[in-house]
Amino acid sequence: MLNPERLKIVLCKINAYKLLTGTIAVILVVLTAFPFFIMLSVSLQTMKEIYAPELVFIPEKAQFVNYLNAMKNGNWGRYMFNSIYVTTIVVIISLFINSMTGYVFARINFKGKNLLFILLLVGMMIPPQVTMVPLFIMMRRFPLAGGNNIWGMGGTGLINTYAGLIIPYIAGSFGVFLCRQFYMTFPKDLDNSALIDGCSRFKIYVRIYLPLSKPVLASLGILKFTGTWNEYTWPLIMTNSDSMKTVQIALTMFRDEAEVIWNQLMAATIISTAIIYILFLLLQKYFVAGILAGSLKE
Amino acid sequence: MSKRRISRDDISAYIMIAPFFIFFILFVIVPIGYNFINSFTNYNLGKTRDFVGLKNYINLFTDKNFLQSIYNTLVYAAFSVAPLMIFGLISAVALNGRSKILHITRALFIFPYITSMVAVCMIWLYLYEPSTGIFNKILISLKLKPQNWLFDEKLALPCLIIMNIWKNIGYVMIIYLAGLQSIPQDLYEAGRVDGASDFKMFFKITIPMLSPISFFIFVTTMIEGFKTFEQVRIMTGGGPVNSTTTIVHQIYIRAFSEYKMGYASAMSIILLIIIFVITMINMKIGREKE
Fold first, then answer.
1. Looking at chain A, which residue has its C-alpha nearest residue B263?
2. Burial environment of residue B218 by CB neighbours within 10 A (0 to 12, 13 to 18, 19 or more)
3. Which of A61, A122, A164, B47 is most buried, with most CB under 10 Å away?
4. Domain A68-297 is of which CATH architecture?
5. Chain B interface, best mutation among A1, A26, A28, A275, by max B CB count within 10 A
6. Is it the case that residue B2 has pLDDT exceeding 60?
7. Which residues of chain A lie closer than 8 angstroms to B138, CB-CB?
8. Which of B13, B124, B171 comes nearest A291 by C-beta?
9. Which pTM value belongs to this model?
10. What is the dihedral of CA B120, B122, B124, B126, to 10 degrees?
11. What are the chain B neighbours of A35 within 8 Å (beta carbons)?
12. With contact defined as beta carbons under 8 Å apart, do A235 and A249 qualify?
């Protein structure tokens, strides 16, 4: 709390400029918080309160049972597992192959490096929305998967499989670029002395670079985690069986019912985003660093 | 390129980049080429896959739905960008500082940005809901006429734009905050010595010093606008009467409900060209500034 002495100092500093920006900021804060407040409030209301003609902000009695009922509305254990499984694998694989490739681009002058790097940058520019159609066809006609023959005919390929959900996310090149930029700041002597000692390149990466990569891997990991967890379009295209649905797809199912059960829907929305919010509160610094780094790519 | 022989170092480099490049080439680069080829065929996931030349591209320019989607996408992008930049900048300026309360407030603005688009849509669907939704309840309690929001041909697109602004202010704010921190403080001190007011310094120092960042935000939010799909598919399905359909939504419908893969591929190529052109202009202007 402000004590009177500090209040005085604060009040002295206020002028028209600060008053104006401050007022707009306060209005923006209220507008930003309002939908979240409504989400929380509705998730604890009865349907009677939701259907009431007047505004209800604070439910008469908090209906925590809505959360329980929401999770019973469909196979939510399975959806949660699917999302966690896909996201975890994407994060682990992409952190490893992106940082290893980033190390090579930062430190080794191999033949064809420039050409491959340009390819990488071009790849970063290609939005997934442009490749979703050809990628879908390729997944569906993936040879020897899902009942397909060697020519990719006859079955459903990688549709409704975890591999189909995971693959596109580990193919993105942004992480390589990010790790390369990070490793470029390391002193070159680090490699040279290790090379003289007879260390292999892979060993240098694993023993020296990887242990020093915590900040870049934390930011990249968070970007990959939120991106994969929040993804809607690709699972929408790739899955049609209930057992393969991710959390995001499952959320939209509440709307397919004849009458939307808003309190359960809001409860499920909170549950499905909770993991991101917890992560954010724990690792805020890396989130912001990740968002800033992510903005580098364009 | 020097014509040296492949060394041991080269080989370890190739081995180490191989896992990534296998995925990258197969699932990012190859699909682009494959898409390009498909765009000249009438492939429909069935047996027909005949070469039709430029027919898909010619049809695109007489396809009323596609032209409408380009118009909608442009409106969506253009009307998202300006408010995002203005409100993002104001919140960055107002919340720039070290105190705990500013820190917490900044975090609040990031929440909509890290929330999934699906979750955001679910919240706003309730706000916009005509019979039980919050906005109409507020309008009624103020004795105003309730609206049909997403079911109204004229209001649906603005509704999506407002939601988009709400979701992304935090992102713009973070970028602007980083920019504000890179402005040398002595500029402001010099201004203060000269007796400039805070307003004057905002317009004469802050805005000009942030212009590269503003340009960057302009470009990225434009590109994001062109990729708009999820909220359209979830909230309006492109309607009412195609008033909210976007380019990516058209690609989705043609490909995944009509199975016109060739035609959808041609649309994807057009989208790729648009984004490519924006990026090129961005890079060119960026280079001239340096």
1. A133
2. middle
3. A164
4. Orthogonal Bundle (1.10)
5. A28
6. no
7. 55
8. B171
9. 0.90
10. -160
11. 112, 123-124, 127, 166
12. yes
Residues in chain A where the model's pLDDT stays below 70: 1-14, 296-298
Yes or no, beta carbons of A255 and B276 under 8 Å apart: no
Convert the pLDDT of each residue in B33-72 to its tens digit: 999 999 999 888 777 788 888 889 999 989 999 999 999 9
Residue-level pLDDT at A265: 93
What is B40-116+153-289's CATH superfamily? MetI-like (1.10.3720.10)
Interchain contact, A298 vs B216, CB within 8 Å: yes
Q: What are B246-280's pLDDT values in tens digits?
A: 999 999 999 999 989 999 999 999 999 999 998 88
CB B39 within 8 A of CB B52: no
Instruction: Tell me the residue type at A57.
Output: F
Option in A252, A254, A284 nearest B107 (CB): A284
> What's the complex ipTM?
0.89
Residue among B13, B116, B126 whose CB faces A262 most closely: B126
- How far is Cα of residue B20 from the mean position of the Cα atoms in its chain? 27
- Within 10 Å of residue A159's Cβ, how many Cβ atoms? 20
Of residues A32, A35, A237, nearest to B123 (C-beta): A35
Domain borders along chain A are: 4-65, 68-297
pLDDT higher than threshold 60 for residue B3: no
